[in-house]
Amino acid sequence: MEISAHHEYTADPATVHAMMTDPDWYAAVLDKSGADHHDVHVEGDSVSIHAEVSAPNQVQRFTGATLAIEQSFVWHQVAEGWDGVVEAKPARMPAKMTGTATIRPGGPGTIVEYAGDFTVSVPLLGGKLEKLAKPKVMSVIDLQQEVGNDWLAGKRA
For the segment 82-126, what is each residue's pLDDT rounded down to a tens digit? Predict the structure, then answer.
């Protein structure tokens, strides 16, 4: 299943990159998403996230009551901004998300775009589980826009 998102921020690319490599910003996104527990580690342009959420009923036979997710972002500066590699893997579930992200000047200041694939490798059920997961995956990605707007406006929890 393809995943894509387009976000626009009213700040320059360097400021948006700084936000997107700030563990407190990721913590704000995860808190707003309803994560029960999370840990964010940043080293330079590499971000590692461990998050735990209540598992939807449809996947509890794979995960138990809690769905743990490991996610990483690795950014590389390029002439016009940053390119990133994004990966996410739920624990105890045959699923993964892989993709790319870009931070570029444009729009009101900066455009961040995501493109990737989310796959669930379960015979006969994979496609159905992907469709069930897509709204939640997209809502968390889209929360980055909302939390980012607040963050850049100085509204930090």
Answer: 999 999 999 888 899 999 999 999 999 999 999 999 998 888 878
Structure tokens at 96: 């993964």
Tell if the pTM clears 0.85, that is, is over it: yes
Contact 118, 127 (CB under 8 A): no
Distance, CA of 136 to CA of 145 (rounded, Å): 15
Residues 125-135 pLDDT 10s: 788 888 888 88
Q: Report the alpha-carbon angle 141-145-146, nearest 5.
A: 110
Instruction: Please report, for residues 46, 123, 150, the alpha-carbon distance to residue 43 in angstroms, rounded to integers and kept in the order given.
Output: 5, 38, 24
Give ∠ CA 28-152-43 in degrees, rounded to 5: 60
Enter the DSSP assignment of 121. Answer: -
Token pair belonging to 17: 């990159």
- Vertex 69 angle, CA 60 and 150, to 5°: 120
Start-end of H helices in the chain: 13-19, 23-33, 60-63, 126-152
Q: Strand, coil or helix: what is 57?
A: helix
The secondary structure element, H or E, covering residue 156 is none
